[in-house]
From TrEMBL:
It comes from the Eukaryota. Residues 1-68, 118-183 are annotated as: Disordered. One of its GO terms (molecular function) is DNA-binding transcription factor activity. The lineage of its organism: Eukaryota, Viridiplantae, Streptophyta, Embryophyta, Tracheophyta. Residues 1-24, 132-145 have a biased composition (Polar residues). SMART domains: BRLZ (SM00338). This is Common plant regulatory factor CPRF-1. Belongs to the bZIP family.
Length: 183
């Protein structure tokens, strides 16, 4: 047979001892203390992993928050700049509107003045020939009467009167006199 220390360590020793002592022996399982330690270690590793994940998440959120704060700051500055630019453009637009109104008024006045000038010029031109016509007619009439007094020749007087009458007819602007003078 084998020695006692050998029988304890051999695999068949448990069954042999059980038959010798009469008490059944269970195979050796890891102790509950050891299992408890394993669970605690796993729990601690999981806790540590969760802490690291939470820390990374906090850092990521902090970076996002800082990035958003920078964007807000940038957009606020851009908003202020755009509002200032809008105000400047509004002021410039108002100035241009006023300037445009002034120029339109000047143009209107210039056109009215030009029209008045043309009308006055036309009126003066129409009146001037009438004045000169009256002067011419007066001279013709005066010369006709002077000829009548100064000359005894009836034929000459008749010729001058007829030319004065014809001159009156030519200078009148009515259609009737135009037809008579043409005939």
């Amino acid at each position: 047979m084998t020695s006692a220390p050998e029988t304890k360590n051999s695999p068949g020793a448990n069954t042999a001892m059980a038959s010798l002592t009469g008490i059944p022996q269970t195979p050796v399982l890891p102790s509950e203390g050891w299992l408890q330690n394993e669970r605690e270690l796993k729990r601690e590793r999981r806790k540590q992993s969760n802490r690291e994940s939470a820390r990374r998440s906090r850092l990521r959120k902090q970076a996002e928050t800082e990035d958003l704060a920078r964007k807000v700051e940038s957009l606020t500055a851009e908003n202020v700049t755009l509002k200032s630019e809008i105000n400047q453009l509004t002021e410039r637009s108002e100035k241009l509107r006023l300037e445009n109104a002034v120029l339109a008024e000047k143009l209107k006045n210039t056109q009215l003045g030009h029209t008045k000038g043309i009308l006055l010029k036309d009126h003066d031109e129409q009146r001037a020939p009438a004045d000169s016509t009256e002067n011419l007619l007066a001279r013709v009439n005066n010369s006709a009467s002077a000829d009548r007094k100064g000359r005894e020749d009836d034929e000459l007087y008749e010729r001058n009167s007829k030319s004065g009458a014809k001159l009156h007819q030519l200078l009148d602007t009515s259609p009737r006199t135009d037809a008579v003078s043409a005939g």
